[in-house]
Amino acid sequence: MKTEEIINDSRTILLSDGTFGSGSVICWMEREQRLHNNYTLLAAQKAASILKRDLVIIFILHHYGGEREERHYRFMLDGLTETVKQANRLLLPMTILTGEPVRTITQYCTEHNAAALFTDFNPLRHIRTIKKRLAQELTIPIYETDARNIIPCRSVSPKQEYSAHTLRLKHNRIIDNYVAPVPRLKKGNASNPNPLPDTETLIRTLSVSSRGSSSHPFVPGTTEAKRRLKIFLTEKIGNYATDDRDPNRDVLSELSPYIHFGQISVHHIVNELIKSQISTEGSEKFYDQLVIRRELSENFIYYNSNYDSLKGIPDWGKRTLDFHRGDLREYNYSFDRFENGETDDELWNAAQRQMVQTGKMHCYLRMYWAKKILEWSASPEEAFNTAITLNDRYSLDGEDPNGYAGVAWSIGGLHDRPWSERPVFGYIRFMNLAGCKRKFNVNQFVKRFM
Length: 450
Ligand SMILES: Cc1cc2nc3c(=O)[nH]c(=O)nc-3n(C[C@H](O)[C@H](O)[C@H](O)COP(=O)(O)OP(=O)(O)OC[C@H]3O[C@@H](n4cnc5c(N)ncnc54)[C@H](O)[C@@H]3O)c2cc1C
Hints:
Serine Threonine Protein Phosphatase 5, Tetratricopeptide repeat; DNA Cyclobutane Dipyrimidine Photolyase, subunit A, domain 3; 3 domains; 20 helices
């Protein structure tokens, strides 16, 4: 069997060659935790059909040791429950396994004489390390499909892009080849329904902490994500371009936790946007955020291995922050004061509380929040770590390429240009309370999160 028959588009690559086993094709669902609009599952199903084998989906539950807490796992597992129910409707076998991923996948593939392993593209370091180790352990072919990005990350550019502008130019040249309805997944022939995961028992196996509020407004799962998309396209998108910087107005899609856990596909969102025939400033801006800005983050993480430290920011950012390292800070807060929302700035504290209580901070405030951490920390390195740790710990969409790129943009000038020089920031773009007051009613927001 030729690998070329299995890979016939630029979404799927052969990560590691090997000999097909005699059993099923295994799809390790990792990032794209949904059944429909999922190019990884489609690639695996096509391979299973070519090889005349069954398709089996596995998901590995494991605590990677990052900042993810109980509410992240709960959101993910409840979302996966819906996915398993969909698998049951499509008669596709799907199993949730627990344990260290390399050992668990290797054992499963070996015991079941797997034909081949398919998995999702994910630019984050710990997932790439797992795949490298799997390639050493397994003797079957391992394939990876980019089911997240409209244009696969590797296809749009072979290097780290300088800015949204440079990525947009490359995108626009080839986008017509990539926007299309996603084919439907075919029914399988499993005779027994898959057991549904027991979220409570599974969470207990992880021993994770639970600092963020558990009564956040994000109901997990694909159905809820689609409901939110519908509301966004019918009620909010008209005001998106004018009001997206006002945290008192509810005009954002609020889809990032669902996109992060792969409960909704970006392809589906774009196809629904096209179908809605909305063509306004709002739809253009939304598309730019969802596709260009998000895929710029993927590009940064994929090509820059220092994405989560100050080492990853542009040279001009490093030089200017270094030059201003010794500048006097008006405040110098410890990590705990930031975490507890105990700064002298009520807007900053309210933004921090919004994240802790609701699992998400408004997009505009995220920039202000991170820039103030730079202004009030002992060093840019400390600021970077504080921002990443808090964002990953409390945001439901944390531990995401967008988060690392967002912090590097706010603190290190990534994808930005030098602005006028000021203390502590140097040439990094500055934001202040007066600017926020010009954009929205700060008191109203602060009162909401007292
Ligand atoms: C300091 C900082 C930290 C951030 N941390 C995260 C994070 O952990 N996870 C995360 O998904 N996003 C993060 N962002 C990016 C952005 O703020 C969020 O994607 C956005 O707030 C999500 O809300 P929404 O889905 O309602 O956005 P909408 O405005 O409705 O946008 C729709 C989608 O477009 C994408 N998008 C929007 N804005 C951006 C952006 N600036 N950069 C990249 N993609 C974008 C997201 O996928 C988003 O879900 C961060 C930004 C900053 C400045």
